[in-house]
Amino acid sequence: xxxxxxxxxxxxxxxxxxKNIFIGVYDDIIVEATSEEKxxxxxxxFIFRFMDVQSDNYKFDLNFLxxxxxxxSMSGTLPIGKLMRHLTLNIGVDQFxxxxxxxxxxxxxxxxxxxxxxxxxxxxxxxISKQK
Length: 132
What we know:
It is a single chain. By secondary structure, the chain is an all-beta fold. The chain has strands at 2-9, 11-14, 20-23, 30-33, 38-49, 56-66, 69-80, 86-98, 102-111, 117-120, 126-130. It has one domain (2-130): Sandwich (Immunoglobulin-like). It is built from no helices and 11 strands. Strands 4, 6, 7, 9, 10 and 11 form a 6-stranded mixed sheet that branches.
């Protein structure tokens, strides 16, 4: 399994023809925050290419690290069929807490029922800094 695309944005909408519209895409990201805790909405968009991946129900663990330390996490299950060649994973984080400033990074782990693990850490950092 290989990660071939990854984006962080405000929202992802799918058109009737299957195309995706990305709204508020963060570039080498700076999210401005005030000194009070704030809840924001983030969308994470992953595209994977499968190579020799077994059909199974995978458990996913999504971890957010602030300056290298655990900050926020979420988990769930993900069914993967045996004829799938690509997977688009669109994860919405409704109430993501912004409670400190620093560099936020993302790590995704997928584990199947035979305990085979895949780990993805995109070279994508979110710099959370004070609003000026």
